[in-house]
Amino acid sequence: MNTNPPVTDWVHDWDHTDPQWTEDPFPIWDQLRTTSPIVHTDRYLGCYLPTTYEAVRAIANDTEHFSSRRIIVRNVRPENPAPTPPITSDPPYHKPAKQLLLPPFTPDAMKKLEPRARAICNELIDKFINDKSVDAAAHYSKHIPVRVIAHMLGIPEDDGHLFIKWIHEILELGIHDQETLVRAATEMRDYFIVHVEDRKKHPTDDLISVMLNAKTKDGEPLSPEHVIGSLRLLLIAGIDTTWSGIGSSMWHLAKTPADRKRLVADPALIPTAIEEFLRAYSPVTMAREVMKETTVSGCPVKAGNMVLLSFPAANRDPAMFPDADKVIIDRKENRHAAFGLGIHRCVGSNLARMEMQVAVEEWLKRIPEFSLDPKQRVTWSEGTVRGPRRLPLILGAA
Amino acid sequence: MAGKLKVRVDPDKCQGHARCKSLATELFELDEFGNAHEIGDGTVPAGLEDKAWLAKSNCPELAIDIIEE
């Protein structure tokens, strides 16, 4: 449970799990950015927050001073019990671990998955298309990435409720509750051990088999810890991130009829609009640990602190993006950092883009008219990944 | 009429965001890891200049150079 005291001084005592940040972080980031490119809090045993695109880029590209061994800012900092390579890896271990995962996630590989993703979207829409209202987070955006990544990993799509429970426990509850975090990680490990053992006997072409067949540069099979760690990563990273990305896109279209009508009339614009949704409502915030004292954008940064690496705040920096606070669905120049910058670029970025595009396309084809339900509240996830967790919509012309 | 353009991807900067491939598929291709490189010697055929500039202005790693000859 989040028992952190409410924030009254954002500049010196910021907290990314404060309800005000969860509800509407954008004005907070704008205020902090005008104060300093980097601000600090004593919460979380000491943590910096870069607020500008320049500072975020500098930290993401500096693997000498900033380690990825901890990638989530939590109240406690125990030794990492279960690394999930390559996201928790630093050079020189990072590159070989990442290269194993890249080939299954190229744009061409995603094209082969696209028909399955479209079918999943339509199966979900079938269930509520005749209703007058729907919670699009609970009944649409959530299930698309769950089912697609389960399909890729070769595990049952129907186990989705388990994955969602673990992710909530690891990424949200785990910020404040170490016991829940460790239990969820252990349950995930045990779950994957069963599937790994099965795949050793019955190999297929799924991602579990890819990891089992992978070799280190010395020609050895990967350690069981590496295989399980990477599988846990793919499951965690592949779900609530894209769930959030799809949900925020739907939220924007529900409250912005002009943009919705424009995309219905001109679906060819959807990929460009998705890039703008990724910029303006970036789901993912990562973290680094400061290993050696250094200076970033003129600010001293001391070892022993964490860094909340806010790609979402970077993407709202007006020094990088003209009209950064406006959502411009045909923005031409868009070097957003929603999938990170530098060596840790999201391995699933091509998957996320495909899922977001397909989810918006299929929805708009079948439900061109929809709006926010004025009688109900939209709620947002807390912490590392931001997106709507309740998204009550009215279907059809209001 | 401006001179000929050539695109070039810096392989040390490219991290495989694949924006260039998506925006200018005639000018860029991806290797087995999804990292980009220019097709052939990077010469931009007439009529594709806008796509070259679009790809450059959407690369998050600033990995694309355009050389005007």
What does this molecule look like?
With 398 residues, chain A is an alpha+beta fold. Chain A is built from 17 helices and twelve strands. In chain A, a hairpin with a 7-residue loop joins strand 10 and strand 11 (388-390). With 69 residues, chain B is of the alpha+beta class. Chain B has a single domain (5-62), classed as 2-Layer Sandwich (Alpha-Beta Plaits). In chain B, 19% of the residues lie in helices and 23% in strands. Chain B is built from two helices and four strands; from the N terminus they run βαββαβ.
Give the termini distance of chain A in whole angstroms.
Answer: 38 Å
Lateral strand order in the biggest sheet of chain B: 1-4
| Number of continuous helical runs of chain B | 2
In oligomeric terms, what are we looking at?
heterodimer
Give the overall average pLDDT of chain A.
95
CATH architecture assignment name of chain B = 2-Layer Sandwich
Broad shape of chain B: globular
Per DSSP, the total helix count of chain A is: 17
CATH class assignment of chain B: Alpha Beta
CATH domain fold name of chain A? Cytochrome p450
Rg over C-alpha atoms of chain A, rounded to the nearest angstrom = 21 Å
Shape of chain A: globular
Largest interface, by Cβ-Cβ below 8 angstroms: which chains and how many residues each?
A-B, 22 and 17 residues
Measured by DSSP, the beta-strand proportion of chain B falls in 15-25%
DSSP strand count of chain A: 12
Short description:
The complex is a heterodimer of chains A (398) and B (69). With 398 residues, chain A is α+β, with helices and mostly antiparallel strands.
